[in-house]
C-alpha cells in the first residue's frame, strides 16, 4: 500500500526572522496508484521553513481556475484513526478558520494527487476538497486575497482548515507569523471565466501514457515558453527527471552530447535566475535556464552542462552540495 505525505506544523522563529513550521510525517493509506512521497521518515521530527533566498512573491500570479475533465481524487481515507470523506464538488464550499503553510522540507515531494509540491506555486492542501479544485482564500486580518489550486491533503490539526504554499502565505502576509484567520471559498472555473468576460481557454487533453524518450540534441536556453490565449500561472509541480547511472570507477568521455545536472526547478523565474547567478559565480561549467511547459504551465529548470566526463559531473555535484545550493541530479538532454 502506498503512502501520502502528511504535515504536522508547529511554528517558530527562524534565524532570518522568518517564522517557519516544524513538521513530522505520519503514514497514511491511500487508494492504489497514489504517489510515494519519499523515505519513511515519519518517526522523527524535521524542520520546515522559508527558503534561504528572498523572492518578490508579488510577481507570482495567482492560480488560474481551469475546468478539470479527468477524474478527481475524492475517495475516503484514514489518518491517525480518523476517516475523511472528501467532497466531489468544491464550487459552493465556504469555511472560515485558521490557515497554516508549509515550505522547504516538502519542496519537490509528491502531493496527494501525484504532483510535486512547489513552495513558489500558488497551491494549497485541504482535508476534504476534491483534488484538484480551486479556492479563493482571504486573510481576514488584512483583506488580502489569493486564488489557489488545491492539490494536496492536510493540515491534520483540528484547529486548522487549510495549508498554503509558502508563496501563498507570504502574499497573504502571514509567512512570518505562521498562521492566519482566513475565509476559504470554492471557485467554479466556468463562472470565474465568465466574470472575466472571457471564454474558457481550450486545454489540450493530457496524454494517457508517456512516450518513450527519443534521442534529442543538447538543450538550449529558453527565454520563454509558448502559451495559448492566456498567461499561465506558475507551475504547480516540478518536472520529473531521468536519472543516469554513473560508474564511479570510470572517468571517460560521455560522448558528444555530454551530461547535464539539474540543480533546481521553479515556477518563479526570479528564483531560477537567482540560483543561476549564484552557481555562475562558483562553477566553471555553463549554467543555463531551460523553460518547459507542463500541464499548460511554465517550469524554469536551472541546469549545468554539457559536462564532458563522469568525474567532472561528480565534482560539480559535490561542489554544489557543499555550497548548500541544492541536490544536483544527472539528467539526459531534452
Account of the 3D structure:
This protein is of the alpha+beta class and 334 residues long. Among the domains are: 75-194, RlpA-like domain (Barwin-like endoglucanases), CATH 2.40.40.10; 257-329, Alpha-Beta Plaits, CATH 3.30.70. It has 4 helices and 15 strands. It has helices spanning 166-172, 189-195, 269-280, 310-322, and strands at 10-13, 19-23, 46-47, 77-79, 82-84, 94-102, 123-125, 133-139, 145-152, 160-165, 180-186, 259-266, 287-294, 297-307, 329-331. The strands form 4 sheets. It has a 6-stranded mixed barrel. The protein has a 4-stranded antiparallel beta sheet with strand order 13-14-12-15, with helices on one face. Strand 8 (133-139) and strand 9 form a beta hairpin. It starts with 9 loop residues before the first strand and ends with a strand. The relative contact order is 0.15. It is a lipid-anchor. Residues 253-334 form the SPOR domain.
Amino acid at each position: 500500500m502506498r503512502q501520502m505525505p502528511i504535515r504536522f506544523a508547529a511554528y517558530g522563529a527562524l534565524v532570518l526572522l522568518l517564522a517557519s513550521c516544524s513538521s513530522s510525517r505520519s503514514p497514511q493509506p491511500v487508494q492504489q496508484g497514489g504517489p510515494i512521497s519519499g523515505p519513511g521518515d515519519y518517526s522523527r521530527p524535521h524542520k520546515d521553513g522559508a527558503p534561504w533566498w528572498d523572492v518578490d512573491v508579488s510577481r507570482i500570479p495567482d492560480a488560474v481556475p481551469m475546468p478539470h475533465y479527468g477524474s478527481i481524487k475524492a475517495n475516503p481515507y484514514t489518518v491517525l484513526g480518523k476517516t475523511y470523506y472528501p467532497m466531489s464538488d468544491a464550487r459552493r464550499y465556504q469555511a472560515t478558520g485558521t490557515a497554516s503553510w508549509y515550505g522547504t522540507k516538502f519542496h519537490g515531494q509528491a502531493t496527494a494527487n501525484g504532483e510535486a509540491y512547489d513552495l513558489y506555486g500558488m497551491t494549497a492542501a485541504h482535508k476534504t476538497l476534491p483534488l484538484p479544485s480551486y479556492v479563493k482564500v482571504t486573510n481576514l486580518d488584512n483583506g488580502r486575497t489569493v486564488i489557489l489550486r488545491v492539490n494536496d491533503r492536510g493540515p491534520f490539526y483540528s484547529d486548522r482548515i487549510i495549508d498554503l504554499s509558502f508563496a501563498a502565505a507570504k502574499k497573504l502576509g502571514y509567512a512570518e507569523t505562521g498562521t492566519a484567520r482566513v475565509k476559504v471559498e470554492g471557485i467554479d472555473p466556468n463562472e470565474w471565466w465568465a466574470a472575466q468576460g472571457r471564454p474558457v481557454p481550450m486545454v489540450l487533453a493530457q496524454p494517457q501514457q508517456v512516450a518513450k524518450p527519443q534521442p534529442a540534441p543538447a538543450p538550449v536556453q529558453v527565454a520563454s515558453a509558448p502559451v495559448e490565449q492566456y498567461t499561465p500561472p506558475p507551475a504547480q509541480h516540478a518536472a520529473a527527471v531521468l536519472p543516469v547511472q554513473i560508474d564511479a570507477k570510470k572517468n571517460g568521455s560521455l560522448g558528444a552530447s555530454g551530461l547535464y545536472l539539474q540543480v533546481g526547478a521553479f515556477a518563479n523565474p526570479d528564483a531560477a535566475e537567482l540560483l543561476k547567478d549564484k552557481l555562475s559565480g562558483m562553477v566553471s561549467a555553463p549554467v543555463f535556464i531551460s523553460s518547459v511547459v507542463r500541464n499548460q504551465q511554465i517550469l524554469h529548470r536551472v541546469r549545468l552542462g554539457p559536462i564532458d566526463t563522469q568525474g567532472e559531473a561528480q565534482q560539480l555535484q559535490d561542489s554544489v552540495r557543499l555550497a548548500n545550493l541544492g541536490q544536483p541530479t544527472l539528467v539526459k538532454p531534452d
